[in-house]
Design a protein that fits this description.
By secondary structure, the chain is an alpha+beta fold. It is about 30% helix and about 25% strand. It is built from 13 helices and 21 strands. Strands 1, 4, 5, 6, 8, 9, 10, 11 and 12 form a nine-stranded mixed beta sheet that branches. A six-stranded antiparallel beta sheet has the order 15-17-16-19-14-18, sandwiched between helices. The chain is globular. The two termini are about 25 Å apart.
Length: about 425
């Protein structure tokens, strides 16, 4: 069973939210953040990407950069650009993309649930990336950015959310650049807060959808604070970290595709012939071809699109990992034919989020930068949850969630 709590969010006044809110720290580099924040001293990038306040090329891991984050966080509060709510609340965060809206509850998730596996993972994390975010949480004594969770849908929560979202939102804006809608409500009624807490307490698990490194960092800092406190009781604020939790049936995972620099010494004709061992190969011509179903792949090579359908003996429907198209393609195409053994380290391969469209794959091949592109049918939320429930880990670069959470709508202080 999972445990959550409301918290006194630190957030921008309504009239400042569009100036403060930003994209997450890990979806853009330092120079892109510098450009987006130009002329806007209220941008959250000054806290989550504080290297932008130093000369270009400054190491983002320099201690003085983390120090600048603390200085800026304090400045934002002193100037009233971020203000703490007086009472503990839950929050509702709605995102709209392409006419579809998903409604998340912003909660304090329990560190103990992460440590004991009640908050379930589907990806491996890298210690260096964890440590970077741990430093950021430590120095600010806050979860500046939320993590993105999914939970098994529950009609009772849907009803509570529907009552609030029928009202005028606290925030309502279209983000620049992506054009996605963001709305936000405050749940401050004691009965509703109690009901939400109790309903979550009946859930067997929650699932990390996006933000594995932030989740790990937040939980590890919370556990660290508990060890360092001789008077630790278990109800301190550091025992919780900020998560936006969406019902699984509202979420859509989009495709996460591959582009490869060479054919491992093969000609295009030899490569296509090698594919026939495990796939039915059909030429589709110059019109863009998108995978039609699970175990169907789209290949772009030498100006043409191809359909690749895996033979039934190449996967096992009872194996939660083996049945994934990322596993099938990694094993039978990238490894067996192209000699790419490690997706995390091999420089011959790159990955393209489906939000960029299949046109991005064509563009990178046609430019000569890459030799071929492979588009995959998206993983389902059921597959993700089944894998997490089984204790398995997905292969690298399997899931891509959109829209990304906007940072700066609310912040969770650890003390």
């Amino acid at each position: 069973m999972v445990k959550i709590k409301p918290f006194k969010g630190i957030r921008p006044p309504r009239e400042l939210v569009e100036e403060v809110a930003s994209r997450p720290y890990d979806v853009l580099n330092s120079e892109e953040a510098r450009a987006e924040a130009e002329g806007n001293e209220k941008s959250l990038y000054h806290i989550i990407k504080p290297e932008i306040d130093f000369p270009a090329g400054t190491d983002e891991h320099d201690p003085k950069v983390y120090g600048k984050a603390v200085e800026n966080f304090r400045k934002f509060q002193n100037k009233g650009w971020l203000v703490q709510d007086k009472e503990e609340c839950y929050y509702i965060y709605a995102q709209t993309m392409d006419g579809k809206t998903q409604y998340g509850l912003v909660v304090g998730a329990y560190v103990g649930d992460y440590l004991d596996g009640s908050i379930k993972k589907h990806e491996l994390t890298r210690r260096d990336k964890e440590e970077d975010r741990m430093k950021h949480v430590r120095v600010n004594d806050a979860n500046i950015e939320p993590v993105f969770f999914a939970y098994p849908e529950d009609g009772r929560l849907d009803a509570i959310v529907a009552r609030y979202t029928a009202r005028e939102p606290e925030y309502d804006f279209i983000a620049p650049g992506d054009g996605f809608g963001h709305r936000f409500w405050v749940v401050d009624n004691a009965d509703d807060i109690r009901a939400i807490t109790e309903i979550f307490s009946e859930m067997p698990a929650m699932y990390i959808a996006d933000g594995h490194h932030r989740s790990a960092a937040a939980a590890l800092v919370g556990a660290e604070k508990a060890r360092q406190n001789p008077d630790h009781r278990g109800d301190e604020e550091y025992n919780y970290f900020m998560a936006v939790c969406f019902p699984a049936n509202q979420l859509t995972i989009i495709d996460y595709n591959r582009v490869v620099k060479d054919l491992n010494g093969l000609t295009p004709a030899q490569f296509l012939k090698a594919l026939e061992k495990h796939f039915t190969v059909e030429e589709k011509g110059v019109e863009t071809y998108r995978p039609a179903a699970l175990h169907n792949f789209s290949l772009y090579l030498d100006g043409k699109w191809y359909s690749l359908t895996a033979h039934p003996d190449t996967y096992d429907d009872t194996d939660p990992i083996g049945v994934l198209d990322v596993t099938v393609s990694s094993r039978l195409i990238l490894d067996e034919i192209l000699g790419i053994k490690d997706l995390r380290t091999d420089k011959r391969i790159d990955f393209v989020g489906g939000i960029r469209g299949l046109g991005e794959l064509k563009k990178r091949v046609d430019s000569g930068e890459m030799k071929m592109a492979l588009a995959l049918y998206p993983v389902s939320m059921k597959q993700l949850m089944d894998i997490a429930d089984s204790g398995n880990i997905m292969p690298p670069k399997t899931t891509w969630f959109e829209p990304k959470l906007r940072s700066g709508l609310v912040i969770h202080k650890l003390s």
